[in-house]
Amino acid sequence: MWGATLRTTALVCSAALLGACAQHYGNRVAATSDSFRAGNVDAAIAAQDKAYEGVAPEDRDLLYFLERGELMRMRPGSLQASTDAWLAATDKVKGWEDESRDKLAKSAGDLGALLLSESLSRYDGQDYEKVLLSTRLAQNQLMAGRWDDARVEIRRMYEREALIASLRDKEVQALKDEAEKKGGKSAEVQLKEIKGYPVEIFDDPAVTGLRNAYQSAASHYLAGFVFEALGEPSLATAGYRQAIELRPDIPMLQKGLEGVAAGKRVPAGKTDVLFIIETGSMPARDSVKITLPLPIGAGVKLLTTSYPVIRPARDNFVPASLTVGDSTVPAAQVTSLDAMARRALKDQMPAMVARSMVRMAVSGAAQEALQRNGGAFGSLMSLAVGVGGAINENADTRQWRTLPANISLARAVVPSGTVPVSFGAGPGSLRQEVKVDGTYAVVVLRPLGSQLTALVSQPGSGLVAAAPSAPEPSRRVAHRPAKVTAKSVSKAQ
């Protein structure tokens, strides 16, 4: 009996320590994210280097490479370093993909049991982060003029979305079956009954209006634009339609589809530009402690657990328009990563609640058994279990922090060459000159502090040619009637 009790104690303490490893990500990257938001990219990079000092490159986690890619992307001349970091992140995500395919092969019962026993020792990325990784790699390839490589990343994005959809559908059913098997309420119902948790963060229309936590209209519109530029109208149509289905309330998205249907061609000397405006910063994941009454043995014990919480971003500025040259171009917010993060958390809460109930039940039973049977030594061991639970008071706060909170799109056909671009941001306006070449171009705009960073795609091979120049109107020459002479008349006769 003592052996079983001690094994349970060890299990509880080990789980607590594993959770503790994941708790303090916000503190670890605070200096990095603060410097980045202020526009001091070099200081942000130095802060990240310090945070991972002593960790061998091969031992660095997924978040290191996600953040590194974003930091390097915003530093002039470091585009390839950004791409390399995100390719390293992709390798780590591929490991998750392989494990996910294994999960899909499991029975619902086995998968449900696995979900209730998973620890938090490794971070595999939120679903929207994994999909957005492919989108941002596609953008980097465009900035390097490698449009075909961008196409590869977009196809990878589609494959990743399909895998996530299959996995999450099976997980939801597995958790539901597991709850019914144990004769308990669903975790979703339990969450609503947990007093003290701010469930209102999930009731925001920006969250409830999302189809899921991983597909974004911005990513799919970019896919349509790239396929259109590469002369693949059927794939372009599919990309634009998916964007419209995700955000049917945005008229601008419809215009892209209409252009493909009409066989639109870019005039010679002009460039069709997709502007991607990234504003705000992702809000942090915080931890909220909840005390719950649980029936243990013959009585009820008050046990404390914690859950992550994401409060809406405060810097939620999005531009309504851009000034491009002398023209005003309307802009539309099509993706809120802030809302997607909260939707992802909402989808994760059923499994989190179920796991916390299991942990608390095990912890409570261990404490009661130790106190009842162990005398003074048992009281000490019971205290150890309580300390183990205290270590795990904070929830997992890991999240890709250098992402923007909002993504807006604007599109315009402009004269090829250098053009000034500006938009209002708070009390002032931000301005940058960009040089666009080729028939199609993508310009990513991101304000950091008082600076506006612009990333511009380079023309690549395979882009659709511009429409032929209209021929100049022919000049009509007036012919005077021939002069009739007696000599000409005689010849005619």
TrEMBL record:
Residues 465-493 are annotated as: Disordered. InterPro entries: TPR-like_helical_dom_sf, TPR_rpt. Coiled coil: none annotated. It comes from the Bacteria. TPR repeats lie at residues 217-250. Keywords: TPR repeat. SUPFAM superfamilies: TPR-like. This is Lipoprotein. It comes from Cupriavidus malaysiensis.
